[in-house]
Amino acid sequence: LPPVTVVPRLVSFIGQLTNWYVRLNRPRLKGSAGSAEAAVALSALYEVEYNLAKLMSPFTPFFTEYMYQFLRQFHPNVVNGAGKDLAEDADGVSPSVHFLMLPDFDASRVDEEVEVLMKNLQSVVEMGRVVRERRTISLKNPVKKVIVVSNDQKTLDGLRRLETYLHDELNMRDLEFSTDEKEWCVLKAEANSRALGRRLGKALSGVKKQIAQMTHDDVAAYVATGSVTLDGHELSGDDLQVKREFKGDAKIFEADVSPEGNLMVIIDTREDEELKMQGCARELITRVQKLRKKAGLVVQDKIHVYFEEKGGEKGPISTAIQSFLPMIASALGTAPAPLSLQPAYSVPIVSEEAQFADSSVKLIVARPAVLFAPADVLAKHEATVPVEQLTAYVASMKYGDVKAALESAEASVTVRNATAQVTLTANVEVFLDAKALAKALGKPELAWLTTEA
């Protein structure tokens, strides 16, 4: 194929890779589903990028050479010197991508069912975004309900398998699938004048009148059977163009139909207090993630987050945190805790005064640090080692070492000096995070912090 044909397809493929595979699988790539799933996702991405470098090498020689030199370090033929006995132009061994042959097409890797599933997913997501734009609803703000309508149960079953992606991309509280087109839309048919004009000639005007009189059920029957007889003429295939028009309450709902006409996406645009709180919680997640990025932290870096709202624990941001703590903790890898629980020896990495939701909140991203039970609980060790010295010593230990000790079979950390030994019990005297401490304290005002996902 000439470059003018190949290059646009490669560019389109890169868009599919980055805007869909990478974005949809970002949590999986980072290990949210476990190390085994992360390895599978990363391996698939590596395979695609490696072959993409070879495919693009004739068109972007310098960029693909840069890609190849980076990727070849991790090729199985290079790792641990595995390819030392291979030819100089073998994959990974070759000093340049331009010495490699273009990859062969492997038809066995094409899964048409998956391609259809992905196409339908993309269609629903893109329609959902269009609907949001019409009502100027930001993607940060969750919507009450998204309804996906299709007369094809197989299509809806496939989308149901991808429900998690739809929730992430369209940010909704509830997702509903419906095959009842009659409830949500009106089917209308229009004549394909170009096709029918040549065949019917003067009879076309009479057929058009019959088409205009077709009811929803008539058009549905045409879609189901593929043919209809009007004014003595049998119509089939592309003779009729079927259109779906939304018939719901336009004050409540906004809808869009796919270009193919097989899918309709309807969004309930009403907003309530719970949705506002959920939007506030998502904004908090975004703010903390931006602070992580500002501090130069990577995915593997663990953090603790503390907050203090200007309006106190009854403010809108605090209320949102309390109401959607599992969602926030899942996204951040830690449960945000009140600033009052931050220990004095905790090391802040970055902080900011953030304004949103008509309120102001102080956010602190800190290095993980252990927390201790109140002084009266630790007082029993005073005669052996002064509590102040005991806590200072444990706090100075590497967090990872203390974590390993507390999560071991002994579930404790032991401190020794020349004359004495003290053992602190996990989740009784020493804690890995504020959530564990809140459970032990049992204070009603901290009960929200103990919520499990």
From TrEMBL:
InterPro entries: Ile-tRNA-ligase_type2, M/V/L/I-tRNA-synth_anticd-bd, tRNAsynth_Ia_anticodon-bd. Residues 6-146 form the Methionyl/Valyl/Leucyl/Isoleucyl-tRNA synthetase anticodon-binding domain. Pfam families: Anticodon_1, DUF5915. Keywords: Aminoacyl-tRNA synthetase, ATP-binding, Ligase, Nucleotide-binding, Protein biosynthesis. GO terms for biological process: tRNA aminoacylation for protein translation. GO terms for molecular function: ATP binding; isoleucine-tRNA ligase activity. It comes from the Eukaryota. PANTHER family: ISOLEUCINE--TRNA LIGASE, CYTOPLASMIC, SOLEUCYL-TRNA SYNTHETASE. This is Methionyl/Valyl/Leucyl/Isoleucyl-tRNA synthetase anticodon-binding domain-containing protein. It comes from Phytophthora ramorum (Sudden oak death agent).
